[in-house]
Design a protein that fits this description.
Elements lengths: L1 H34 L4 H5 L4 H17 L3 H19 L11 E9 L8 H4 L2 H4 L3 E5 L3 H9 L5 E2 L11 E4 L3 E6 L13 E7 L2 E8 L7 H19 L6 E7 L7 H10 L2 E2 L26 E5 L4 E7 L10 E7 L2
Helix pairs in contact: 1-3, 1-4, 3-4, 8-9
């Protein structure tokens, strides 16, 4: 009799533990969503929203596999809370008539010594514009020697936070955004003006600070603040492309603020943005990465196609966009 009673207690305790985990998970996610604008630790959860959704699905499955109603309800709550951030992702830009332009944005990774694999990617070889981050002098020289792009940005990589633009179109102007700011960690977006078939097209190269600490998280926010102001100052009929390693997932409230204030559109998939940043230490499994590299466009620029390029020795995938510019 004692053994039977003790077994029932253990059995009941197991259900309590499962429900506690399910509800604790839900509460933690709600806190992270509510405080990610104000608290660095909460903001970090935005980088793993896909992983948290998978965890929510697992908790839902476990809850429904058990016979208690309490685990089923708590599992459903966990799944719903994990799915909420995906319900508010912005829709991608629509297609539009215009002149086709292909652009590749890629963080080539400062410790990636050989650009050969990158240059061998067909989408890179045919790109009209390259917007690159973490470029080294060796990469700069190799891409220029390939002869595929007639125009390049300044060779002073340090002045441009190791960013580089190559283009088949003439570069009319290049300027640093808010160089007077002292709270961006020494990083600044760069604005380029290109002449695309007699029409001016603005391309912003971006690479804000990675938020690995509270201080760096604030520096990233300041960088996005300056970028948001710069985009707001562009003429409403300007054709603008913003590309690079944003170090910011699409679930970030700071990214949503930028899109909302500017009226610009992202090119990422609405329901499941493709991971672009992954760990080389984890066998370069891109599927378990996070989406932080992207291309954003002004309302009069259309999106024909978006795809991710293959791995090439970096811990980022190249983002390839086929756009349409008003004629």
């Amino acid at each position: 009799m004692f053994s039977f009673s003790f077994g029932r207690q253990i059995y009941g305790l197991c259900f309590i533990v499962v429900v506690t985990i399910q509800l604790g998970f839900s509460v933690a996610l709600l806190i992270s969503m509510g405080l990610s604008r104000y608290l660095w630790v909460a903001a970090l959860a935005n980088f793993i929203r896909p992983h948290l959704l998978v965890a929510g699905i697992m908790l839902f499955v476990v809850g429904w596999a058990l016979p208690r109603l309490s685990t089923k309800i708590a599992g459903a709550i966990a799944l719903l809370v994990a799915a909420v951030p995906f319900l508010f992702l912005p829709p991608p830009a629509p297609s539009a008539a215009g002149m086709p332009v292909s652009l590749v944005a890629a963080n080539v990774y400062v410790d990636n010594p050989d650009p050969a694999d990158f240059l061998a990617i067909p989408a890179v070889a045919s790109a009209d514009i390259l917007v690159l981050q973490e470029v080294t002098p060796r990469w700069q020289d190799a891409l220029l020697a390939s002869g595929r792009w007639a125009f390049e940005s300044s060779r002073d990589l340090e002045a441009n936070t190791d960013m580089k633009l190559f283009s088949r179109f003439p570069i009319l102007d290049a300027r640093t955004i808010s160089p007077e700011s002292r709270d961006t960690g020494g990083r600044y977006a760069v604005r380029f003006e290109l002449l695309v078939n007699e029409r001016s097209v603005i391309v912003y190269a971006v690479h804000p600070q990675t938020p690995r600490s509270t201080r760096m998280w604030r520096q990233r926010a300041a960088y996005l603040r300056d970028l948001e102001r710069a985009l707001g100052a562009e003429p409403t009929d300007a054709s603008v492309i913003v590309a690079g390693d944003w170090n910011t997932p699409p679930w970030s409230p700071f990214f949503r603020d930028l899109l909302s204030s500017s009226g610009y559109r992202t090119t990422e998939a609405r329901w499941w943005p493709s991971p672009t940043r992954f760990s080389i230490r984890l066998w370069s499994l891109t599927q378990i990465g996070t989406p932080i590299d992207r291309i954003v466009i002004s309302p009069n620029v259309g999106l024909s196609e978006l795809l991710m390029g293959p791995t090439f020795g970096s811990n980022h995938l190249p983002v390839v966009a086929r756009l349409s510019i008003p004629r």
